[in-house]
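user:
I keep going back and forth on a fold encoding question. Separate attempts, laid side by side, tell us more than any discussion would. Would you put together a sequence-and-structure record for a protein of your own picking? Write it directly below this note and I will take it from there.

assistant:
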Amino acid sequence: MVKGKKNYSAPALEKGLDILELLSDSNSGLSQAEIAKKLNRTVNEIYRMLNILLHRNYIELDQQTERYQLTYKLLQISSRHQPIKNLMQKSIPVMREIAQLVNQSLHLSIYYAGKLLIIGQVDSPSKTNYSVPAGSTFDLLATSSGRVILAFQTGEERKRRLQRRKLFLQYEDKKIAKSKEIHSLEKKFSTKIIHEIIKNKCEVVKSLQIDGVTNICAPIFDHTNHAIAAMTIPYLHKINRTKNDLNVKEATKLLKNKSLILSNSLGYTSNK
């Protein structure tokens, strides 16, 4: 098909993709009526498509709340894609090693369609545990992972991704897109902050989502010398620390070292 022209259309396919993309932006799921309203369609229009997606295990229905949610099938499919598969195969063993040494959980994230997508997660060996499940999506600027990935892009690419972020937020909820909090996050992601992240090769800040958690985040590079992912320790501050628990400074040093080794294995050369 010629770019820019819509000589052909596949209404049923578009309908299914719209539903999947909509559910990917919802953490608590959506009812059939909510899906229809957000997509400007009737309930009858989406009824058959929801049943097909259920049958193919792309979505699931909570019988108690009658809300639809994505399953992990799309994540499983994407993990077969060679670049993602290679990243996962090399990252997960490193994350498991770090989890054992730091006594904290870790997650791996990438930029995807204007948002941050968690593609891998390893639990802490400790009973006291905080983790972010694979498949979760977040606003790019509301997370250390998103800011770190953005910082290690060219200025042009960073601008493009931030523009895509606005489209994602508008699609999810126009009220959210216009909120003061969203604009505040944009202002805070200043040139100074970007330079600090680049200089330190990491970001260590208090979580915007969870009290008592400090996000320690380091970039993962490939042969392009740009960040293709971010590895994060959502460092949970424990009341009763043991001798096996590294402090934030020690955990940061370890994460930066391991992420650099991982980046080198993916073709990164720091002298480029």
Remarks:
- The CA atoms of residues 28 and 69 lie 7 Å apart.
- Residues 1-5 have pLDDT under 50 and may be disordered.
- The chain has eleven helices and nine strands.
